Request: fold
Amino acid sequence: MDKPDVLHNILFGLAALVLVGVLAFLYDKTQAVDLRVQNEILRFLRELKEIDGRWDVDVLRARIEFGSNYLPASNRAAAASKALQDLGAALQNTHSAALSAGLPELNKAILQKVELVEKFKAENRNTKDALQAVLKGAAELSAQAAELQLRPPELEQALSRLAATAPQYYWLAQDPQRTSLEAAAAQLHKIPDALRDKAAELDTAVQALLKHKPAEQLLYNKLAFLTSGPRLDTLTFSFSRELEATLQDKERYRVYLVAYASALLILLAYLGAKLKAANVSLEHRVQERTRELSEALKHLKESEAQLIQSEKMSSLGQMVAGVAHEINTPLAYVKNSLGTVADKLPDLSTAIERCEQLLALLQAGGNANAEELNRLFALVSSQIAQLKKQHVLEELNKLVKDGLYGTGQVAEIVGNLKDFSRLDRSKVTSFNLNEGLNSTLLLAKHLLKSVTVNKQFSDIPEIHCAPSQINQVFLNLITNATQAMETGNGTLTLTTRSNGDGVEVEIADNGKGIAPEVLPKIFDPFFTTKEIGKGTGLGLSISYKIIQQHGGRITVKSRVGAGTKFTVWVPVKPPAEAEIAA
Reply:
């Protein structure tokens, strides 16, 4: 073999080696991702999220429920610890930068929450025991005073204030209730010596309540600001996006592989029948990889739908928390009024019973015992005079009115919630956007306490839409607006008007505004300008999709330092091609 042939063969071998090397590289890049480990990690993250949510529900129930019910005995700490250990073990089988970076902080946040929940359980138990001791001690002291016929006005006033104020201080834990409770306890030092021992026990219970309630409230506030839940959401989103990016890379290299394989097949076609079988086998493998990647992408889209549903449930959870906060005040108001009424009823019952005895003696006529008649008459007159002096009937009438007012407030809140969700109506119906904005404002009242709301509503026609979805858009936009404004210096302006064949709604705030480079991205899924752990980046994306499905449009104008204005336009009747989601 001459020298040129040898050189040609060497170059041909090198070229073949390079071609095979490139093919092997592309083939390696298209290897299917083992989704079993990723799904297992997502399952552990969802399990931790569920445990965290149940912790929050347990703490909230223990905080607002009255009685001897404490937090459940189920060991959520052990379940959370096991889930963290399983998550750490699963991390050994995958290379996830997001999970490796976020897991230590998540572990720290979960352990911190475990510690705070245990401390809260102890303080909550002490607070409830102290409250029960105060109510029981007040009843026993009242009974002892009645038995000894020692009922000075100071004692009656102190016991009445204790019975009314102690539950109020347990639920509200505010300075006026604390001051009133301390004043009532101070009055116990001015009672007769025969009642001193029982009064001292009652004072000890009051001091225990004053000691443990602030400690419980402090732990409750710390739990409310823990970041374990947001960290879980952020870690889940980061891990999912990392997985999505990996699958997209696989898909891109698959395209490269298909193109390269096609070119290589054309190049190697002249080699003959021996290479044909190898080419068929290679094509079959490429198709198999394509099928696996397609299934992986399908699974990823399903995960994305679950994340969107999770965002909707998160918004619902925030709304329910606000409604619960608004209902708690009038409900406590009604309970306190009924408790005071119950305290006054025994005195009225006694007076009525003695009046009936007096009437029976009067009906007996001449057969009645004159001395007994005089005694009963004097006793009834004294008791009626005492009731008039204490203004019992006027106080009961006021308490009943207060209770009716409180129940009316609860009924109004529940009615607004029903109007907001429209659960009792068809999915798509005629709807006035002014009513939707009013319902949303009432349900978001807890977010608007330091915000001035200007309503500039016009006479607008009803539109054909899904009311609950439109209300969800309004809630997302109003929530974002309140979060963008400084506390105590915010103004929210809501404007409605007819515009062409549709209705236009403007939601404007005077907050910090949105930077020009950020503005084009705000409707992108998972994009957020909030701190890590405080936003999912799905609220505006979901709102944009809802309005688009109704055949409308949503636009935004913003200037840094001056505020932001969102404009939503929805047609009166959606076009035929509009697809309102079920």
User: Anything to note?
Assistant: The two ends are 77 Å apart (CA to CA).
